[in-house]
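agent> fetching stored inputs for the S-adenosyl-L-homocysteine docking request
agent> found them:
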Amino acid sequence: MVDLILKKGKERSLLRRHPWIYDTAVQKLTGTPSLGETVRVLSKEGRFLAWAAYSKDSALRARCWSFDETERIDRSWFESKICKALRAREPLRTRTEAIRVIFGEADQLPGLVVDRYGDWLVTQFQAAGVEAWREEIADILMQETGVKGIFDRSDAATRHREGLQERVEVLRGQEPPAEIEIQEDGIRYGIDVRKGHKTGFYIDQRDNRLLAQKLAAAFKQRHGRGMRALNCFCYTGGFSLALLAGGAEEVISVDSSAEALAMAQRNAQRNGFAPERSRWVQADVFEYLRQARDAGESFDLVILDPPKFASSHKHIDRAARAYKDINLNGLRLVKEGGDLLTFSCSGAMDVDLFQKVVAGAVIDSRREAWMIARLGAGADHPLMMTCPEGEYLKGLQLALR
Ligand code: SAH
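agent> prediction call returned; pasting tokens
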């Protein structure tokens, strides 16, 4: 067993059970651990701190498995963590077939993402530690879930930082179909686990899709007609379908990707929505919003769910300007009495900054807006309180008064 000894004072974050150890905190190692090998982490004074997975090339030099000296990091340890994660997601299964069953640090399995789509699992091994235990993890997942197969989508660029190659392949069982169909809150979605974003679907927006559906239904009840809505960055139509299911009269969905729009249209057909209720527009949202305003368009609800504009703190200023731009131009299209649902999935931008940026857009738009709710990811993406870096998706529901 190799010991990883920290520099003086660098044990503080571990004593608060934060699971990351940066290269700059490491004083020395008593041997040369292999990639992903479990090491014993000690303070400079020799106090036991954690069991961690070592990653020799990464700035995140080690990620902690456990802070309990009596635990052994072996197959049965992984079994217990995986079973605990699966059990915690059980209640969601009455609502949906798309569930993040393992969410890395939150499930004490740093760097591991496992998403379930009906009878299939899709994995992402994003750190050397979980990669070293890949076969055991795959066996346990097969045994505990009874799925038809596991598809590995370990193609995130972050793997290079961990000294790992990208890998996309069937990990266990059968080859998944080209499109897996799942149901969520009564709506059907097709998911391409090979080429889709993340593992194929924005599972994290589940509760916000349901909110959109409810807003559309409430509007119809109040006004006796369906709303007119704009869904920007629609991808495969998650929010668009929710709005149509809620009774929206017309939904305009905008995305720059022809592939995503094609899948979104197939998804609308899958649910039997009349084609004249939706319009699918391939365009750059920044330009589309300006053109729509020039054309005098207005909507009862506008949704903005862009890709991550800030990949790190370095890009935060540029990202803030981009968020401000779409929020300002999005707000201008909302009818008096209408709503805006606006999101940011940039982990580098915290909720306070996001709210400030959106408030800036409200001021510049010369509109009056109430914040009705702060929004976030669903219950299958919990935040480990000791690791705030896990928080990334945030949203605001604004009502224009
Ligand atoms: N709202 C979606 C997820 C959005 S992902 C959902 O709930 O499923 C971000 C999407 O923005 C991607 O589909 C990507 O193709 C699209 N995109 C990125 N930059 C864009 C731009 N400038 N204009 C339009 N679409 C863009």
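agent> quick read of the result: The chain has a mean pLDDT of 97.
agent> awaiting further instructions
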